[in-house]
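To whoever picks this up:

The nightly regression suite flagged Ammonium transporter as changed. Nothing in the input moved, so I suspect the structure step. Input below, exactly as stored in the fixture:
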Amino acid sequence: MNGADTAWIIVATALVLFMTLPGLALFYGGLVRARNVLSVFMHCFAIACLMSILWLVAGYSIAFGGGTSGYWGGLDKMFLLGITPDTLSGTLPEILFFAFQMTFAIITPALIVGAYVERVGFGFVLTFSGLWMLLCYAPVVHWIWGGGFLADGGIFGETGVKDFAGGIVVHETAGLAALIIAVFLGPRRHRTTPPHSPGFVMIGAAMLWVGWFGFNGGSQLAADGGAAMALTVTHISAATASLTWALWEKIKYGKASMVGLVTGTIAGLASITPASGFVDPVQALVIGAVAGILCQEAVNVVRNLLKIDDTLDVFAVHGVGGIFGTVMIAVFGLGSWAAQLGGLVIVGVFTAVVTVILVKLVALVTPLRVDAETETNGLDLSVHGERAYDISS
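Regenerated output under the current build:
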C-alpha cells in the first residue's frame, strides 16, 4: 500500500460524492419549476443511497470481480466477500477502490435524472436506476476498466479502448439512456417555464467543477504527476468551454446567459473526462473550445429538430460531450481509431437495447409517468407531501 496514493483517493472519493450530493442536485434542481425542486433533490439523494447498497451487493463484483469472462466479472466479490482492510488493489486498499468506484456508480444513473424531471413516477426512478446500474453500467465498467473485452489485449488488440475517467462508461451510457427515456415519456405539459433558480444552477455547477477534480484526477489512482495533469487539463477545458458557450450565445441571441455559461462548464468537463489522462493543456484548450459550441448546437438539434424533451439536456451535454472527448483521443493520435469508434458503437448499441428493455419491463410494474393533475400541481406536494418554499411561514 502507498500512503500518499491512499490519502489522495480518499479525498477524491469524497469529491466525486460531492458531485452528486449536493452538486448535481442543485444544478438540476435550479433548472426546474419551483414546485418540482424537492422531487429532483429526492431523486438524486435516493439514487445515491440505493446505488451504494446495490454496488455492495453485486455491482462491484460484476464490474471488478475475478471472473475470467471478458463480459462480466462474476459474483465472487458480492458483499465484498473475502476483502479485508489489508486486501490491495494496486497500491490502494481494495475497500477504498470499491468506495471510489461506488461514487461513479452513484453519479451515472443520477445524471439520467435530468431527462425525466417534472413528469416521472418516483417508483420508476428507483426501480429503473437500480436495474440499469447492475445490468448496463456495471458490465460496461468491466468491459473497459475491469480488464474486459474492450480493454487492452481485448478485441481491438494490444491497445484497447482508452477512456480515462468515463467518457464512454459514464457519459455516453447516461446520455443515451436519458434520450431514450425522454422519448418514451413524451414532452412535459409545461415546457416553456423558465428555471426557477439560476442561482442554484450556478452553485451546483461550481460544486460539480470542484468535484470533477476528484472524478478525473482520482482516476489516475495515484498521487503523482499524472493526477496533477488530469486535474489541470480538466480545469482548462471547463474554463474554455464556459467562455465559448457564452460567446456563441452572444453571437446567436445577442445575450450571454449565466445558465448558458455554467452549462458550458459542464460540457467542457464531460468532454475532457475520457481524455484527461492522455492530453496536454493545449489539447485540453482545443477540446473545451469546441465543446462549448458543439454541445450547444446539440441542444438545438435535440430540442428543435428531433422535438425530444430531454428536459435538462442530458444527452446534448453529457452524451455528446463524452462521445466527442472519446473521439478526440484518436484525433490527437493518443488512441486507435478502431478502438475508440468501435467502443462507442458497441457500448452505444448495448446501452440502447438494455435501456429500452428495462423501460418497458419496469413500466409494467410501476407507472412511468405521473398523471396530468400531478404534473400540473408539481411533484413536490403531490408525490412527496412537501414544498420547497412556504412563503406563508
